Every structure is written in C-alpha cells, then in structure tokens.
C-alpha cells in the first residue's frame, strides 16, 4: 500500500485545495493508500523512517523539494523502498528533472510505476539526490526574497536580482578530485549532480559543472531570471562551461560561501561531496535519449 507524506504548507497552502481532487484521482488509478501530514521541518524524514519500519514499500512525497529531500534522508539505506513524488511545492526541481511537471501527471506516473535506481550523494553528513550548487544561485537566494507572488513582487525581485548580479564577484575555488589531482579556478557558479539523475541511461557518477560569468547583459539577465524562478541548473550558451566526472570532490572557496542542496541552504565550504553506495528507487517518468559527456571551454583551470 502506498504511504503519502503530505506537507500542508507546500505551494503556499495549495495542498488543502487540491487534496480532494488528488485523492479522487489516485483512487481511480487504484493506488489509494495511507495519508500523513507533516507539522514542521524534519518531520517528513521521521514519518518516512516510521513508515518503512512498519513495512510500507512505497512512500510518496506530496510537496516540494524540501519534502522529497527529507523523505530521502528518512529512508537512507533501505533499498527495498520505492519513492514517488507529487509536486505541489513552490520549488519542484527534483520532480522536473525526472520528467514530472504537474500533480495530474504525477498520479499517472505513480500508477505506471517505472522504477529507476539512483545512488545518493553525501555532502558532509547530509544525503541528497538531485543538485548541489554554490556561487551565484546560492548567493542570490540569500539576497532576494523569492517567496512573494504577484507582478509587483516579481518586479521587485527583478530589481533586487539585477542589482545583485551586476555586483557579484566570482569565487576562487580549489577542488580535489578523487584524491588524484587538484584544480584551481574562478567560477561564477558550480553545480554537482548525479549524472544518472539528469539522464537515466547514464551511470551513477558525480557530474561537476563549472560556469563562468555570462558575457552579455541579456544572457546574464536570463540566467538570473532562471535562478529566481527556481529552475534546475540555469544555463546560458554565453557562459563558458567546464564539466567533468568524479566519485568524490573536496571543495574550498575564497571567500568561504554557503552551499545549496536541492534548492535549500545546507552548509558552507569547505565541504566533501561523494557518491555513496546507498541507493534509492524512484518512480519516474520514462525519459529517452542519450547522455553525452561534454567538456567545454569554461573557466580557466589550473591543475
């Protein structure tokens, strides 16, 4: 039986309005189950651990990235558990990356039950599935309030964001890669993800992406807007990018800076990030296509 962990605060309270429609659709698809609501931060992890201990083998996070991340950390080490997502949060990067863009589609995906195993990534003592970032996106989140809605709020976010991006200075990074070599570079943005999470046909391995500052103001503004809208891994063709694969990296920055895990601030540099042997089975949308490892002419790297 499915076990649904609901964050009632997700999506600025949209859960309550959707709950009847959501339950009705799940019943139609034959995947009804037990429902539990969180009452505060960290509770989804405890609920997931308790549900797994009671024998539930399918746990569904009904909320945003924070809820999904808590569920993952609650069942770490239990490879018999399948995890599903119904995205109704303000930030749904994880769902988007596995091909799910609406709660209606999520219900169909849960019913189809296509399972993809992913290795978890550890950042210090915290486990995550999707993306770790540092640099511009993380700093932008600290300096611009993205919680408000409406056109006036968006206009204010754009003004704040543009003022921030024009003055933002790149970070000096020192990165130890697999204990085999060390590189130094100035980066505008750094992101680490499991490449298999980006493309299910790829193997489990850390994909490290280093991006330089976009060269044109228009592209810089586009990059900022993507970041404000909480889209996964903002990109621009104008930003030189370097990518490489690894199993473990240790990152130091000058100055010391915060890191963001799955869209939430979760620590500071220096930090060690490693691909673990702990697996999570996710119920995903079917994604086709070939993964291509790309190495671009990105930030100047000193080995």
Structure overview:
The chain is α+β, with helices and mostly antiparallel strands. The chain folds into 2 domains: 2-113, Rossmann fold (3-Layer(aba) Sandwich), CATH 3.40.50; 128-276, Tumour Suppressor Smad4 (Sandwich), CATH 2.60.200. 32% of the residues lie in helices and 33% in strands. The protein has 9 helices and 16 strands. The strands form 2 sheets. Strands 1, 2, 3, 4, 5, 6, 8, 9, 13 and 16 form a 10-stranded mixed β-sheet that branches. It has a 6-stranded antiparallel β-sheet with strand order 12-11-10-7-14-15. The protein is globular and about 55 Å long.
Helices and strands, with pairings:
Blueprint lengths: L1 E5 L3 H19 L4 E5 L5 H11 L4 E6 L1 H10 L7 E6 L5 H5 L5 H10 L2 E9 L2 E3 L2 E5 H8 L7 H17 L3 E7 L3 E7 L1 E6 H4 L7 E6 L5 H12 L12 E6 L1 E7 L3 E4 L2 E5 L2 E13 L20
Parallel strand pairs: 1-2, 1-3, 3-4, 4-16
Antiparallel strand pairs: 5-6, 5-16, 7-10, 7-14, 8-9, 8-13, 10-11, 11-12, 13-16, 14-15
């Amino acid at each position: 039986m499915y076990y649904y962990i609901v964050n009632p605060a997700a999506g600025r309270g949209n859960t309550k309005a959707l709950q009847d429609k959501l339950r009705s659709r799940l019943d139609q698809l034959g995947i009804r189950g037990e429902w539990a609501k969180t009452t505060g931060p960290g509770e989804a992890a405890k609920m997931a651990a308790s549900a797994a201990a009671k024998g539930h083998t399918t746990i569904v996070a009904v909320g945003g990235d924070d809820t999904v991340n808590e569920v993952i950390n609650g069942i770490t080490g239990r490879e018999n558990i399948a995890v599903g997502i119904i995205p109704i949060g303000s930030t749904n990067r994880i769902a988007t990356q596995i091909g799910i863009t609406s709660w209606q589609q999520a219900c169909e995906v849960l019913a189809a039950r296509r399972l993809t195993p992913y290795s978890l990534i550890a950042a210090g003592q915290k486990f995550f599935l999707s993306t770790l970032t540092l640099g511009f996106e993380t700093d932008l989140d600290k300096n611009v309030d993205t919680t408000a809605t409406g056109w006036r709020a968006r206009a204010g976010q754009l003004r704040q964001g543009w003022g921030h991006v024009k003055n933002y200075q790149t970070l000096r990074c020192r990165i130890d890669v697999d204990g085999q070599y060390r590189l130094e570079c100035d980066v505008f943005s750094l992101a680490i993800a499991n490449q298999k999470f980006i493309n299910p046909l790829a193997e489990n391995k850390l994909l490290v992406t280093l991006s330089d500052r976009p060269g044109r103001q228009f592209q810089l503004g586009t990059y900022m807007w993507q970041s404000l809208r909480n889209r996964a891994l903002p990109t621009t063709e104008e930003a030189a990018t370097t990518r490489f694969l690894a199993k473990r990296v240790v990152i130091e920055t000058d100055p010391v800076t915060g890191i963001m895990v799955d869209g939430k601030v979760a620590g500071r540099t220096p930090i060690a990030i490693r691909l673990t042997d702990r697996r999570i089975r996710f119920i995903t949308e079917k994604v086709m296509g070939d993964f291509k490892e790309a190495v671009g002419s990105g930030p100047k790297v000193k080995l």
